[in-house]
Known about the structure:
alpha/beta, Aspartate Aminotransferase, domain 2, Aspartate Aminotransferase, domain 1
Amino acid sequence: MNVYFDNAATTSIRKEVIDKMSFVMKEAYGNPSSTHSFGRKSKSYLENARKSIASILNAEPKEIIFTSGGTESDNMIIQRAVLDLNVKTIISSPIEHHAVIHAIENLDNIKYNNVLLTKDGSIDLEHLEKLLIENNDLKLVSLMHVNNEIGNILDLKKVGELCKNNNAYFHTDAVQGIGHFEIDLKELSIDFLSASAHKFHGPKGVGFSFIRKNSGLKGLIHGGEQERGLRAGTESVHNIVGMQLAMELSYKNLAKERAKILNLKKYFLVKLKELFPDIVTNGLSGSYDLSTYTLINVTFPFDKEKSKLFEFHLDLHGIACSKGSACQAGSSVGSHVLSCIHSESIKHKPSIRFSFCRDNTKKEVDYVIDVSVSYTHLTLPTKA
């Protein structure tokens, strides 16, 4: 049996999306920047996608800029905020995606402050407010909506209000949130947002930035006037249309699919705790309200030697998931997220992220549980 429980890494593409992309590749192959009929046809698909995505998020079409994905979007927004908006200080956290952390670290002449975390890995909002008011520098706050490893959900409304009240810009990497949670960009004080299609059953290699109108942000990539001069390069029309349909279907079916996935998460956690009473849920991933319904991150109660081959054991039995211990054997660099919240007593134990989608079943959960239990009975070879 093969089980794919790594949907936070990427998702399968919906059949309807594949069919639509194939159709567009055949029917709308003109360059959307060309003024002839072939180009105009492609341009029509492009702008309809922009309007649809903007409508779902209650934004204006001109505020949606197509990119190659979340990483490009994060880099563009962070770098150009410093270059174009006179941002002097960036406030972020040590558990952001590396697309944010490394983008900030590669900037010159910028102050970089990390907000403190609570024991469960949540953002300390009181400390965030202190950082916002400590000097008169123009600031950019970059905090992710849903943490990709432990699933903690950021209160976008509260953070947005703090930023607005202190004249700071607010960017959120919403790669794990778009397609899974409703976001109203007219109601929220978000200046910039990053998203990626392959996290909600769309194609890889395409995403978008939300850039609030009149922000003054300019483009990172030069060489053309596409995307109103904010992102040079011929747009990948079939991928963008695929993203549009994937997003439309995600929100059309959101209530039904969310309920199914949440029930699966609950079932999995109950089973795990029954069979592994000492198992630890990392961050808030054991919560049904404060964490995303799409994943759990757990540390299994295995000793140091037994921990080494657990993920390999799961893989041998056809189970796809993601390791994430703070000090994982066989890896020179462990999870920077778990290293921030793990105690010394469990950092050598195997932490696994299981992430779900609409296609997963209780039968698959039972199989993963059985394979995990079977590992406890294995006798590992000793060194000669």
